[in-house]
Every structure is written in C-alpha cells, then in structure tokens.
Amino acid sequence: MTRKQKRLAIIAGALGFLGAAAGLTLYALGQQTSYFYMPSDLQERPVASGQRIRLGGLVEKDSIMRGDDTQVRFAVTDGDHTVKVTYAGILPDLFREEQGVVTEGIFGADEVFVADTVLAKHDENYMPKEVADSLKEKGVWKEN
Amino acid sequence: MSIELGHFALVLSFALALVQATVPIIGGRLKSEALMRVGEPAAITGFALVALSFAALTVAYVQSDFSVLNVWENSHSAKPLLFKITGTWGNHEGSMLLWVVILAFFGALVAVFGRNLPRSLRANVLGVQGAIGSAFILFILATSNPFARLDPAPMQGRDLNPILQDIGLAVHPPLLYLGYVGFSIAFSFAIAALIEGRIDAAWARWVRPWTLAAWLFLTGGIAMGSYWAYYELGWGGFWFWDPVENASLLPWLGGTALLHSALVMEKRSALKIWTVLLAILTFSLSLLGTFLVRSGVLTSVHAFATDPTRGVFILIILMIFIGGSLALFAWRAPTLSAGGLFQPVSREGALVLNNLLLTTATATVLVGTLYPLLVEAVTGDKISVGAPFFNLTFGPLFLPLLAIVPFGPLLAWKRGDLAAVAQRLFAAFGAALAVTLLVYVIVDRTSVLAALGIGLGLWLVFGALTDLALKSGLGKVAAPVAFRRFTGLPRSVFGTALAHAGLGLTTIGIVAVTTLEVERVVAMQPGESVEVQGHVLRFDGLQPFTGPNYTEDQGRFVLSRATGAKLGEIVSSKRFYPARQMPTTEAGIRTLGLSQLYVSLGDKTPSGALIVRVWWKPMVTLIWLGALVMMAGGAVSLLDRRLRVGAPMPRSKPVTATQGNRA
After folding, report:
1. What membrane topology was assigned to this protein in its record (chain A) (predicted)?
2. Is residue A132 part of a domain?
3. Shared domain check, A106 and A131
4. Domain of residue A114, residue span
5. Interchain contact, B583 vs A128, CB within 8 Å
6. Which of B189, B202, B463, B574 is 20 to 30 A off residue B103, Cα-Cα?
C-alpha cells in the first residue's frame, strides 16, 4: 500500500469507530437519560408508568413513615403539589423533613413513585442544585 | 509567618510568571541566548514564591488563625492536626493554590532536569508553562483569594466538611493534581514543537517520561478517590459515573492514549502530528476537568464554588488555551514532517487501534458528561445521564480494547505476524478460558457475564506473563540462561507487563463486584444475626463514643463463619459533627482475602430495630490493587535507563535496534 492508501485506511478505520461510537451514544442518550421533574411539572407533562424519571422537591413535613421492615414512605412537595414516594433501603445521612431531595425511579400503578435511589447533596445547606433552581423559578426560594 | 507575606509572594509570582511567559519565547524568536536564559531562574524562583505562599496558608491552618476568612470557613480548633493541614486544600481557594504550586513545581523540574534539551525548545516549553501559570495565579488573585482577612476575628471556625476529614482526602487531591497538571508538560512540549515547526523522535523521548509520571499519579489519584468514595460515603459504590469522576477519567484515557502514541513516535518516528494533537487534547481535558469541578456548574461533593464569576473566568482560560492551542495546531501542524511507514498488522498498527478505541471511548464519556449541561443550557430541561448510558457506550468500546491488549507487545514493529502471535498466546488464552469455565461451573452458574469478565481480566494477566516468558526465552533456552535474560530485560518491558496485568486485575475486581455482589438490608435488634454468603454477622448493640470533634453511635458486630469459627469484630457507626450540624456514616469493613464484608448503618425503626445494610463484595480489593500494580508498572518504566527524565540518547545508538526487537 502507498502512504496515501494507508492514511486513507486509517482515516476510514477511525471514521468507522467514530460512527459506531456516535451510533451507540445517540441510542443510549435516547434510552438511558432520565428527565428531572418537580411535582407540579407532572401536572403539565404527565409521565407514562414505567418511564424512569428523577423527581425532586422538598420532603413534606410529618410525611416520613417508617415500617418495621426497611420500607420508608414520604412525600415530595414543591408547595403546590405533592407526590407520594416509597423507598426500600437506607436514606442518605442528610435526609430531613422540609429539606431538598432528588429521588430516581418509576411510577407504580397506584400513582405512588417507587424510588430506587435517593440523593442528597453532602453540604450543610443541603439543597440539590436542580431543586434549588426549580424552587427559584417558582419564586418560593428563600435564601437561608 | 504572616498571611500577607503569602499573598504578596503570590502577587510576585504572578508578575514573574508573566515574564516567564513572554521573555524566553521572544528570545527563541530572536535567537537571543540571554533572553532565552531568563526561563530557568524565573521558573525556579516562581516555584519558590508559590510554595512560600502555600506554606503561609498552611501555617494559618495549623495555627487555627480564624482572622483569615478561608481558615474560619474550613477549619476548627478541635480538628486533629492532620486534617488541619489537609484542610488547606479541602476547599476551593486552597485547592486552586495547590494546583498552581504543582504546576510551578513541574515547571521548576523542567528547568532543573532539562539541561540537555535544545536551547530554544527549553525556552518555549518554560514560556508556555509560564503562560498557564500566570492565567491560574490571576484566577486565584482575582476571584478566589485564600488570603482575605476577617475583622473582627471569630473565636471558633466553622470546621471542614466532615466527609472530607479523612486520610483518603489527604492524599487524593495532591495525587490527582500531580496527574492533571503533569500533563501540562506534554502540552507545553507540543506547543513548543508547533512554535518551532520541528519535531523528531527525540521530542517523544523527552515527553514520554513526563507523561508517564503524570499518568502514574493520575492513576493513583483516581484509585484513591474511588476508594475514598467507597468507604466514606457509606453506599459501598466504587464508581458512580458522576461528572466529577468523569472529569478525572477523561484526562486519564487521553493520557493513556498519549503514552502509547508517544511510544510509536519515539521508536518509529511515526504518528508525530497525532501525538502532538493528543498532548494538546489530554491537557485540554485536564483543564476541562478543572473547569467542571471548580466552576460550580455541577452538583457534587467537590463543588465548593458557587460564585458565577469563577466559572466565567475559568471558561475564558479554557477557551484561550484550548482554542489557542488547537488554532496553532491547525496552522502549524502541516509544516511538521510525516513519519515512518508500517504495515497494518504490526506493533504500530496495534497501538493505532489502541488509540482509536481509547479516543472514541473518551469521546463517549465526554458526551455523556457534557450533554446534560448542554441540554439544560439550550432547552432548560434537566436530565441526568448515569451508569446505564456509560455501560452501553463506554463498555462496547473498552471491552474490545482489553481483549486486544495482550497482542500488542508481542507484535513486531513495522510488520507483524498475527498468526504467530496468536499461537504464542494460545497457552494464556487456554488458561483464561479454563478459569472462565471453572468460575461458571463452580462459583455461579447464573451469571455468564461474571465468568466472561473474570476470564477477560485473567487473559490480560496471563498475556502479560506470556510476554515476559517469551522475551526471556523460557522453554527455548536452558532455564539458567532464561533467568539471566529475564533479569536483563529492559525495565520498560516489565513496566508494560505490570501495567497490563494491573489493568487485568482491576477488570476482574470490577466485574466480580458488579456481578457477584450480595446485598442484605435488614432491620436488626441487638442479638440478632444475618447471614451473608457463608458468613454470619451478629449485632451486639449500639454504643456511644466521643471523638475529638464529633460524637458517634457505634454499632458493634461480631463476624463468624457459617461453621461457627469467629472471624472478629466489625464496628460501623453513625457520626455527628456538631460544628456543622452534620451526620456522616462510617462504614465497617472487614477484608477477607481479596473480598470485603461491608456494613453500613441506617435509621432506627419505630420498634427500636436498627436498619443495617450488609454487602458481600467479592474480590473488590482487586480494583485498587490493580491500580497499584499499574502504578508500579509506570514507576518501573520511569526507572528505565533509556528513559531517564530529561536525558535524551542520541538517536543513532544501536540500543534502539535491539530494543525494537525485544521491547
């Protein structure tokens, strides 16, 4: 092969890999991303049951109920609307009433959100960024 | 030492960095020896000044001088001394200062060890280092001043974020920065080569040890960060595909590609332009990582900064350096001469394939990391891209790469014989396959993936051993001769074998723990037991304990085998740090062979039982042991006589010919 042909072969190979990677990336982005919702967003844009989303808001006061097993029930609110959430497992250290939380999971048949992940920012102000931004947009954000 | 002294030293170092960034490069253009010579003293004095400024801040931390805003925000007089010192870089301002200290350190190293570099190349390299340094020192002075005073001084500080009060954090950022910033040397060499319009194999010989050292530290930094997250966050996860983790993985992938392409350039003088581009891209990814972590655009444990001016400032630095260097590349790269020829099936060909796979894998990680930011900026939608995305994109690109690794070192330069290499690897393949079947039949028949993954990791380990055995002629010559040849092999051959075997070990660890892990979440009363994978864990109750700056409830457990033999105690606790009003989980971990039993405490149920999460993590330690072996490989290669830092060998030495056949 001449130098030119070799270079072409390498470029073709590189394009092949890039193409495969781009294809995989696009497919995965279509399948594997989860959108962030606040409870009020669910009123405007309903979510099909079985679709994976991230639900964020404040943990409603007096809503945390623990069973004797590892199930925990609580409600996530943004002031206007509230969604019930169940979660089996250990909650993050900073999970508290009236504090921001982001949960990830799917809606069950009974409109209860079944979370498999509960996220908390490791900070004394304890407000996940998405939640803080959304609350600011709604105008209910209070600086400290 | 007064904090103002530190501040003043930093301002001085900024002025000096400006001199270093301009005078030597102008000297290079004008061919003025006197101007070019300014670079070395400027770099060494600059390092002394930044080091002095960092020392001043450290002293303020050790003395708990709360009249310094930064110390008040991040320290507490009751904090143990070690964490007072490490607290210096446990915050945004201090960690940026550490970044600059390490940058200046590398610049000084080039000045000291670069005596035999060509004059103008050394001047240009130091000039580019000065330019990077001045940008970041200005960033600290303008937006993140750690030396600001507080008046009146408070009596007590606000303490360091408790999860950062850990030995892992003491080591993780300095290692990571040594890696990130170490790539700046490769970058500066690339820019210098472009400025001069000249590049040869000797260039690669100078760049490779610096890249190797940076890669070695970055490997350690990532592994340390991963282990820290594993035991400190109490979730038992070792990698979350968090954007901040990706920010450190990206330069690692780029740097790994750079190491391999620089090898081709050094030995065969091919892939020159590509190597220069990779050097630019790798450091650009380090800068991008710094931007992502330091700008506050991401939510994470690392996001100390939320001041938007900082984000904009770093973004400008990013655009100037990445945009500028790529523009320079587009303008000057065509003037660099093309290199040697090779057949597709050859060592070069294998390394090109390695580079293609590594860079495309890097690209997918980059897309997954930046896509959510982009979508939010454009549409306002908040989305998250997590592990499933990366498993689907990074996985299919990285697995074939792992599969071809053992072939690379066995192929000859220029023109290789794939069939012969495959024949030589037959034993390694057979052994890996045998273990795969064994794992499938004996350990777990439900998970084909586990068996295949562990087999793949072993294939890498056996492949590395085969390489060593073949190169020492084992089986072909008498055993004593083979042994003598073995001990006489160039150190870089051991380096390659160790690094590849380490990669295999890490693969085994990751695969084993993700596919064979056993998790139990149970509510336990004192005296109750839970059984996990042949081990019985008995809960003996909670006990209060008071530490220097925290209180905790220690859950005490007794671990024994299912047969009854006692293995020891495990203590797992819930800590509370009053200064920050913050609870943390301290996991209880017991290492059994290569595996670990991981116990983490939850809340109490209404009936008084404690929720306990117990994991059996099979072969989990291999993840980090593998990284240590990779680092050892890097270190052994660095010690290679032919690769001594800054000591180039004349190209014509016959050594190159023999190492071409053996290395």
Report:
1. Single-pass type II membrane protein
2. yes
3. yes
4. 35-138
5. no
6. B202
My answer on whether A58 and A124 are in the same domain is yes
Question: Which of A17, A96, A97 has the most B C-beta neighbours within 10 Å, making it the best mutation to test the interface with B?
Answer: A17
Please give the structure tokens belonging to residue B418: 């794939």
Measure B350 CA to nearest chain A CA, in Å: 12
Arithmetic mean of pLDDT, B128-152: 93
Tell whether A29 and A99 lie within a shared domain. no
Spatial neighbors of B191 by CB under 8 A, at least 6 apart, are B124, B128, B280, B325, B328
Same domain, A39 and A109: yes
Tell me if B364 and A17 make a contact (CB, 8 A cut-off): no
Report the residue from B364, B383, B609 with minimal CB separation from A68.
B609
CA distances from A23 to A30, A105, B401, B532 (A): 11, 26, 18, 42
> Closest to B396 (Cβ–Cβ): which among A24, A69, A70?
A24
Do residues A86 and A64 share a domain?
Answer: yes
pTM for the complete prediction?
Answer: 0.90
* CB spacing of B521 vs A90 below 8 angstroms: yes
Residue A13 included in any domain: yes
Of A6, A21, A124, the CB nearest to B582: A124
Tell whether A15 and A69 lie within a shared domain.
no
Q: Outline where B114-200 has alpha helix (H).
A: 119-143, 167-196
Termini Cα distance of chain B: 52
Dihedral of the CA atoms A15, A21, A23, A29 (nearest 10)? -150
Task: List the alpha helices (DSSP H) in A33-100.
Answer: 39-44
C-alpha B299/C-alpha A133 separation (Å) is: 12
The reply to whether residue B606 touches residue A123, judged by beta carbons under 8 angstroms, is no
pLDDT in tens, B474-511: 877 888 888 888 888 888 899 999 999 999 999 999 99
In angstroms, the separation between the Cα of residue B579 and the nearest Cα of chain A is: 10
Mean pLDDT is highest, among B61-65, B148-152, B295-299, for: B61-65
C-alpha closest to that of B37 among B51, B19, B57, B11: B19
| Residue A22 maps to a domain | yes
| Residue from B165, B382, B521, B553 whose CB has the most chain A CBs within 10 Å, to mutate | B382
Share of chain B above pLDDT 90, in %: 49
- CB contact (8 A) between residue A21 and residue B363: yes
What's the DSSP call for residue B68? B
- A123 with A113, same domain: the answer is yes
Contact of B93 with B142, CB cutoff 8 Å: no
Task: Extract the annotated binding site of A for heme.
Answer: 122, 126
* Stretch 23-82 of chain A: residues touching chain B, C-beta under 8 Å: 24-25, 27-29, 31-36, 54, 66-70
CATH number of the CATH domain containing A75: 2.40.50.140
- Pairwise CB contact (< 8 Å): B521 & A14: no
Q: How many folded domains does chain A comprise?
A: 2
A128 part of a folded domain: yes
